[in-house]
Design brief:
The protein is globular. The chain folds into 2 domains: about 50 residues, Arc Repressor Mutant, subunit A, CATH 1.10.10; about 140 residues, Tetracycline Repressor, domain 2. The longest helix has 24 residues. With about 210 residues, it is an all-alpha fold. It is built from 9 helices and no strands.
Length: about 210
């Protein structure tokens, strides 16, 4: 059972994160100060630092909310009968819709996640590990069902699909993709192409030097 103190801490943390989403999105990450965050959240500056050491850490804390939401939506939208390709597209679309609810905040958030500052590298790795842990069971199940080769290195496969996701998100920010449906269609094509391979049918496999 949650105590009054624990609930107050949860609400304070939530208020800080909501203030960050609003200010990072409207003013920009670099132009937002801790003082401004504190005022927007309705707390003292010292309270901010008692929860987060830096603005970068506030951004990464958003990942906790994102991962919680991702797990919840996966349970609602994906089951054991969902084809591997469909599951992959669904997972990344859940993330895309969540991160880009505030367009400008999403831009800042993705930049910090992909290129974390030295202050939060360790925390960023921890979040990466939790994100990877979502995909490994999915990939293993796809291998068992014959949807994915058994010799695929799953850690690299996760990175490969995430890189394709970043390409789609970048295209959305640059205006090449205009709607969520465009992003979903692009992800489907990119992932399907990755799963099928680029070599012509019957062509000799590409050898590395």
């Amino acid at each position: 059972m949650t105590t009054v103190r624990e609930e107050k801490k949860r609400q304070t943390r939530k208020a800080i994160l909501e203030a960050a989403v609003h200010l990072f999105g409207s003013k920009g990450y670099d132009k937002t100060s801790i003082d401004q965050l504190a005022r927007k959240a309705g707390v003292g500056k010292g309270t901010i630092y008692s929860y987060f050491r830096s603005k970068s850490e506030i951004l990464l804390a958003f990942c906790d909310e994102e991962l919680e939401y991702l797990h919840k939506e996966m349970g609602r939208r994906i089951d054991d009968n969902t084809p591997f390709l469909d599951a992959l597209v669904e997972i990344f679309m859940i993330e895309f819709r969540y991160v880009t609810r505030n367009r400008e905040f999403g831009r800042v958030f993705l930049r910090e996640v992909i290129f974390p500052s030295d202050l939060v590298v360790e925390r960023s790795r921890e979040i990466d590990d939790r994100f990877i842990a979502i995909f490994i069971p999915l990939f293993e199940k796809a291998q068992q069902r014959g949807e994915l080769r058994l010799d695929v290195e799953l850690l690299f496969a996760t990175g490969h699909f995430y890189a394709l996701y970043i390409i789609a998100v970048s295209s959305w920010y640059s205006g090449r993709l205009l709607e969520n449906d465009d992003v979903e269609m692009s992800l489907t094509m990119l992932f399907k192409q990755a799963l099928t391979g680029l070599s012509p049918v019957g062509a000799p496999s590409v050898k590395s030097r």
